[in-house]
Amino acid sequence: MNAEIQAYNDRQTTVDKEICDLLATTIDSELTEAECKIWHAHPVWFLDGNPIVGYSNQKAGWHLMFWSGADFEEEKLNVIGKKFKDASVFYTAVEQINTEDLKRWLKKSKEIQWDYKNIVKRKGQLERLE
To answer: How many structural domains are present in the chain?
Structure first.
């Protein structure tokens, strides 16, 4: 695991660290070609500079977000807005994480991507990457 992300996970409570470690190791094992780093204070994985998946601690629990997840057609992922293509799920216990679902979503995250890397250059307009 990336040392920066491991340090982030190590700063969490025991229960939260279990969630973070399972998310990070599963993401690392499925997105082997991804770059990962702390971005905007949270762990995020990128493919060719495009953000793919990340997690953060929020009031509702650990927020696992897929930047292009709205197009995954997965009922367990919540799509909140209409402007962007993100979708997410919240976890409060490691037992809630279904690794088979997570692996399927990660596979889709490689195949279905919107170009967030160039969103500023395109003045807020997203384009689908092929």
So the answer is: 1
| pLDDT at residue number 124 | 66
Chain mean position to CA 12: 18
Q: What percent of the chain stands above pLDDT 90?
A: 81
DSSP string of 60-88, one letter each residue = TEEEEEETTGGGS--TTSBP--SSS--EE
**Cα(5)–Cα(24) distance, rounded to whole angstroms?**
8
d(CA 68, CA 43): 17
Tokens of 120: 């500023």
* Positions in the chain short of pLDDT 70: 81-83, 118-120, 122-126, 130
20 membership: H or E segment, kind and range: helix 14-30
The CATH code of the domain that includes 83 is 3.90.1150.200
Instruction: Specify the pTM.
Output: 0.90
